[in-house]
Here is the input.
Amino acid sequence: NAGVTQTPKFQVLKTGQSMTLQCAQDMNHEYMSWYRQDPGMGLRLIHYSVGAGITDQGEVPNGYNVSRSTTEDFPLRLLSAAPSQTSVYFCASSYSSPGVTGIGEQFFGPGTRLTVL
Amino acid sequence: DAKTTQPNSMESNEEEPVHLPCNHSTISGTDYIHWYRQLPSQGPEYVIHGLTSNVNNRMASLAIAEDRKSSTLILHRATLRDAAVYYCILRARGGSNYKLTFGKGTLLTVNP
Here is the structure.
């Protein structure tokens, strides 16, 4: 298994540009999520999905869109990039929601380092 | 959400045990205690989790206080590869609480 993969690894955008960060997992996980990590801070949840066709907002959803058309893929779209979105973005997935079974080990991708000028 | 409190940093010597503390005095009866770690320039990595009883796995042990208001992650023999930020996280069971709420964690330095 490749686990959780993210592309690109690095990206530089200009203010106002849009782009999509890709995330894929090959573990047939139901739950997927996006986090951002800023210097000196922990990870903050942007959006999450509990299954294909179902998404919901996390702590910091503004400026980002997501969709989940397949179990494997969970892309994150930046609609109009702003310097405040400069961050490292992590995608994660887990087999089941921890709320149901208490298992919920999350697997994280290697991250995408985004700079918005 | 119930919060956790961890020391900002800790230091250890290679091949010695490390005890990483976490306080969670407002934990509810349905909260699981999870630990993740993040090595430099990598995504977080699951370490261990528990509810009430102490837990062991190949990476670490988790000791949970009887009143569940604190817990300790134990690395039995620290290696240089264990240098990372360690996060103690509470996850509610049931309902729609799927998210991991990360704090700033504890930066563990391992000296050779």
Remarks:
- The longest strand of chain A covers residues 43-51.
